[in-house]
Amino acid sequence: MKIAVFGSKHQKKEQVEKLFAILRKNNTEIYLQEKFYIYLKDALKLQYDIAGVIKTDDFEADLVVSIGGDGTFLRTASIIGKKDIPILGINAGRLGFLADVGEKDFEATFTDVFSGNYRIEHRSQLHLTTEHKDYHGFNYALNEIAIMKQDTASMITVHAYIDDEYLTSYEADGLIIATPTGSTAYSMSVGGPIMAPTTSNFVISAIAPHSLSNRPLVVSDSSVITLDVESRNNNYLISLDGRSNVLTTGTKLRIEKGAYSLKVIKRKENTFFDTLRNKLMWGIDPRQS
Question: What is the pLDDT, as a whole number, of residue 104?
Fold first, then answer.
């Protein structure tokens, strides 16, 4: 089996050593992302006999392992793009909804993976287009597309349309369009609802809205969302899973469901609702030790 490993520069040496011991024991061909390879060699003084170093987006693998936090997972997902390669997220960060395999579960998880005892969840993505291709970079987002004010204390105004029907004009610090996967990320932090990751919806949530009557809105993922932005300094920031560009007002944004989904590997006994209970500590009384 060919396995591509992507990681961040914030790894515990013990975790990396444990991961590679498991991969070598199962006779896998290991390919390392170049930046992660350099970090392991120079910072952690670890060097392994690997099959190759991934220097571009042009690579093949049977499985991709992302070790880090959810940010590392999102960067890895953007590199996978349309390759249709399943991705397994190992948590070396903090909360970890995407990278949810903890160190204590390494052995059991890879035993399941190598025996085929796992399931694949197909996660929908957002696709951004503009008339003149103003956004530079990978224009898909697994979590969210966020429109935010830039270099000013003043609010921006976002005129929103659903399938060409006028919805409303948001006066706020910004607006978030999130997938079900992203409903537990930035969207949740501004009061958006949590959605099960395989549902067929998007959620629209304002960031610090001027109107107290403004509430998050869930729409079908078959909807086409069009946005026009007004700003006092004629600029605004647009971010796709943290990858940001500055655009000028007058740039119409078209946001819709991507043409392809991302394959995410999950252990059969690990469900989204288990993750919610564990990560958000639902049902735990903080008054009790």
Answer: 85
Per-residue pLDDT tens over the stretch 258-287: 999 999 999 888 888 988 888 888 888 777
Q: Is 70 annotated as a binding residue?
A: yes
Beta bridge partners, 220, equal 201
Name the more confident of 96 and 245.
245
Angle between helices 106-115 and 13-25 (to 10 degrees): 30
Q: Tell me: is residue 81 an annotated ligand-binding position.
A: no
Can 70 be counted among the known catalytic residues? Answer: yes
Question: Which of the following is catalytic: 70, 100, 112, 241?
Answer: 70
Report whether 96 belongs to an annotated binding site: no
Largest CA distance in the chain: 59
CATH architecture of the domain with residue range 126-257: Sandwich (2.60)
CATH node for 2-124+261-280: 3.40.50.10330
pTM of the model: 0.92
Q: How far apart are CA 187 and CA 205, in angstroms?
A: 6
pLDDT at 99: 87
Is 215 annotated as a binding-site member? no
CATH 3.40.50.10330-classified regions of the chain: 2-124+261-280
